[in-house]
Amino acid sequence: MTLSETDRERLADIVELQPTKNGVLQDRWGMESGSDVHQYLESELRDYYYRDENSLIRATTEAMELVGEGGEGEEAPAVHMSDNERRVFAVIAGPDDRAESVVSVLHAVRDQYDVPDLDAADIRRALQTLKRKGIVTVEHRTVPTYKLAVPREDVNVEEDAGEDGEHAAASEA
């Protein structure tokens, strides 16, 4: 996807302001409504942003690379992951390994963690979320297969700090 200069500037705004809301971008971009922001994001920047579990707008890893963020010596922004996403992230094939099927990842998660009620739909959902965040890539063979898009150590996973609801960022290797 080739981005215009305006698209690149707006993508840089998302990277700078993340996590952000439609209203903040509406003000920054001089748009009439949050709906206009949403339509623009979906039509022009669909591959470069995602909404987190709180519906806040965040840039994908690819978007940050495009605008020059997260380079050498800089710590990557913290990425929030659900418990299932963390499990998948911990066991999925690395960027230089052969991609795995959903069932293969499911078995790896079951082997490493005590989650007998976990099913393929849970794994598929976690993989799709990690794909939107730019952490996992898909290779289409007979069935879709997945592996990390970036080295595990390059992802800064946001961890829950405790019962008080505060978050602390920690690198996960």
Description:
- With about 170 residues, the chain is α+β, with helices and mostly antiparallel strands.
- The chain has two domains: about 5-65, Arc Repressor Mutant, subunit A, CATH 1.10.10.10; about 80-165, Orthogonal Bundle (Arc Repressor Mutant, subunit A), CATH 1.10.10.
- It is built from seven helices and eight strands, in the order H-H-H-E-E-H-E-H-E-H-H-E-E-E-E.
- The protein has helices at about 5-15, 20-30, 35-45, 60-65, 85-90, 100-110, 120-130; strands spanning about 50, 55-60, 80, 100, 135-140, 145-150, 155-160, 165-170.
- The strands form three sheets. It has a three-stranded mixed beta sheet, with no helix packed on it. The chain has a three-stranded antiparallel beta sheet with strand order 4-6-5. The protein has a two-stranded antiparallel sheet with strand order 1-2.
- Strand 1 (about 50) and strand 2 form a beta hairpin.
- Helix 5 packs across helix 6 and helix 6 packs across helix 7.
- The longest helix has 13 residues, at about 5-15.
- It is elongated.
- The model is unreliable at about 160-173 (pLDDT under 50).
